[in-house]
TrEMBL record:
Family: In the N-terminal section; belongs to the cytidine and deoxycytidylate deaminase family.
EC annotation from Swiss-Prot or TrEMBL: 3.5.4.26, 1.1.1.193
A biological process from GO: riboflavin biosynthetic process
Cofactor remark from the record: Binds 1 zinc ion.
Protein name: Riboflavin biosynthesis protein RibD
A Pfam family annotated for this UniProt entry: RibD_C
GO terms for MF: 5-amino-6-(5-phosphoribosylamino)uracil reductase activity; diaminohydroxyphosphoribosylaminopyrimidine deaminase activity; zinc ion binding
Amino acid sequence: MSINNLDPNNSMPLHLDALSTDETYMLRCLQIAKNGLGTTAPNPMVGAVIVHNDKIIGEGFTSAYGGSHAEVNAINSVTDASLLKSSTIYVTLEPCSHHGKTPPCADLIIKMGIPKVVIGLKDPHEKVAGNGIKKLEAAGCIVKVGILQKECEEHHKRFLTFFTKKRPYLILKWAETADGFIAPEPIKRGEEKKPYWITNTKSRQLVHKWRSEEAGILVGTNTVLADNPQLNLRDWAGKAPTRIVIDRRLKITKDFHVLDGKQNTIICTEITDRNNYIDGVTYKVLNFIANLPQQLFTLMYEEQIQSVIIEGGAQTLQSFIDANLWDEARIFKGTNRFSKGIAAPKISGRKLKQIQILTDQLTIIRND
C-alpha cells in the first residue's frame, strides 16, 4: 500500500454512482483541495472547480499562504474567459468577502459574471460568516449551499476547529509495542543507551508525511532528553512544523536538536530570566501549576497554529487525554515486546479505521 494512500482524513468513502451532479463536482473540489495540505494555513485549503455545459473548464486550489485563493486560481485557469458568464463555480468553502493579503474572492466571481455558485459549507471566520454568500446573492448570483457538507467539514476540520473552538485541531500520535509500552525503562547512570525502534521504516516515513501536514509538533522535556528528536521532515518533502517543546525548568541544553535554530521553535517554560534563553528560539512563560493543556491551546491560538501533532512523551500525551483536549489519535502497534518499560497512554474514543502497514498496525481514533 502506498504511503500516499494512508490518509487518516479520508474517512468518509462515497459511492460515486449515487452522487448527484453537484456532489460529483464538489467531490472533485475536495480532491484537488488536498494539494494545499500543510501549506495554506492560516488560510483554509479550499478547492474550486468551474463547469460549463457539464464540462470542467477550470480548477484551482489555495496557494501557499500569501498566494492566490482557490477561486482565483480556478478562474485564471480557464482559457476562454467568455465562458464564465454561463458557468457554475463549485467551491468547498464560502468565498471570502473581505480584503486580506488578497482581494475578496466574492468580488472576483461577481466581476467575471459567473451566474451560479455552489458551496460546500459556510465560512465560520468572523470576517466572512455568511457575508460572502450575501454579497453574491445581492449581485444576482444563484447560490447553493451545503453540498457534501459533512465531507467538506471533515476536510476543513483544522480550520473549523480553530475558528469555532478557538484552539488548534489536536492529533495525538504514539507507537507502542505488542505488550503496551512506548519506551523501555530509563537507563541507569553509566549504562550505555541502546537505540530501539517500535515501528518499521514505512510507518516512520508516514509520520514524517503527517508532520508536513500540520502547523505544529509538540513534545515534552523527557522525550527530548531521552531521544534528542529532530522533529523535522527528513523522510518527506514539505514545510516543517513549528516545534513546541514543554521545558518547565529549561533542562534542555543548546546541544539538543530542538534548539538548533533550523526551524521555528517555541519553548514553554516557567523561567523568566532571559539570561537562560538561547538566541533564535521563542520562549513563552506559562503557569505550570494551572491547567497546562489549556494554556498551551491558548498559546497556539495566539500564534495562529491551527493544528498540532503531539508525539510524546507518555505524561504529555496523557495530560491532554485526561483533560479531554484532543481530536484525533493515531496509534501504531509494533510486533516487538519490551516486557517492562514506560506504559502507553490510556485512551478511548470512536475507532475510525485500522490499517496494516507491513508488520505494524495503525489505529485511528476520533474524540467525538
